[in-house]
TrEMBL record:
Catalytic activity: nicotinate beta-D-ribonucleotide + CO2 + diphosphate = quinolinate + 5-phospho-alpha-D-ribose 1-diphosphate + 2 H(+)
Enzyme class (EC, first level): transferase
The protein's Enzyme Commission number: 2.4.2.19
Descriptive protein name: Probable nicotinate-nucleotide pyrophosphorylase [carboxylating]
Domain Quinolinate phosphoribosyl transferase C-terminal: 109-272
Length: 280
């Protein structure tokens, strides 16, 4: 992860919450009073974002000492202390809510990604995320997918070309659109084409797509489409794939399965932040 980009975002998020100061803590807690805070799991999950907590507290107060007890990508159980931090109570509480919100969401995404990989149980197929991320949180959410054993699709629109239904309609069909694209981009830019039936798959192959996506195809349809695609062209399936249905795609032969639910429908992990007095 790019630490500079992360800290820039965290500073904005913290500023939104802290504003002119933590009015509650400043009227209750004496300046200089110190202690420890712990982020404690209330349910099992997969770790993601310990370093985010550390970088976040650096934005709040560089004197806060953060200890990460569980490595990203590792499982944890209810009752485990995931991250602890020592410092001024005022600083610990100032960063608590924002950093815990992000941390809980990242752990939820990592847990869901791990669940998807385990349910699919097919090492020949990579589980990928999509661009269906929360605005402002993409860098965190896509990292969390990797912590869970998944892989990242495009980070943004500038990474690669993906010709979807609307592009193909505006461009005049698969062959015409793909030819126009190939004339304008360099050889390092990959071009993926979305298809919905056998005829479109064959057209995408003939037109020279680098990657072919099977949109909203059943496992049976995917297995038949894959046979039409040369091995030099990567294949991806996307649409209507959930944790409940993902096992049915085992052995279908596709290279990648893209799941928007990994980031747009995830449930944050239940994690508490609890203070303890210095010396306890």
């Amino acid at each position: 992860m790019n630490k500079l980009a992360i800290k820039e975002r965290l500073q904005l998020f913290l500023m939104e919450d802290i504003g002119e100061g933590d009015l509650t803590s400043q009227t209750v807690i004496a300046t200089g009073k110190r202690g420890q805070g712990n982020m404690v799991a209330k349910e099992a999950g997969v770790m993601a974002g310990g370093e985010i907590v550390r970088l976040g507290y650096q934005c709040v107060d560089e004197e806060v000492e953060v200890t990460i007890h569980v490595a990203d990508g590792e499982p944890f159980q209810a009752g485990d202390i995931l991250v602890s931090m020592k410092g001024s109570y005022l600083s610990l509480l100032a960063g608590e809510r924002v950093l815990l919100n992000i941390f809980q969401r990242m752990c939820g995404i990592a847990t869901m990604a791990r669940d998807a990989v385990l349910r699919l149980d097919d090492p020949s197929i990579r589980i990928c995320d999509t661009r269906k991320t929360t605005p402002g949180l993409r860098i965190f959410e896509k990292y969390a997918v990797r912590c869970g054993g998944g892989f990242n699709h495009r980070f943004g629109l500038s990474d690669a070309i993906l010709l979807k239904e609307n592009h193909l309609l505006a461009g005049g069909g698969i062959t015409k659109t793909l030819q126009a694209v190939k004339e304008k981009v360099g050889h390092m830019v990959k071009v993926e084409v979305e298809t919905t039936n056998e005829e479109e798959v064959l057209e995408a192959v003939e037109a020279g797509a680098d990657v072919i996506m099977f949109d909203n195809a059943t496992p049976e349809e995917i297995a038949s489409y894959v046979k039409l695609v040369p091995s030099v062209i990567k294949t991806e399936a996307s649409g209507n794939i959930s944790l409940e249905t993902i096992a049915s795609y085992r052995g279908c032969g596709v290279d990648y399965l893209s799941l928007g639910c990994l980031t747009h429908s995830v449930k944050a992990k239940d994690i508490s932040f609890l203070l303890e007095a210095e010396g306890e």
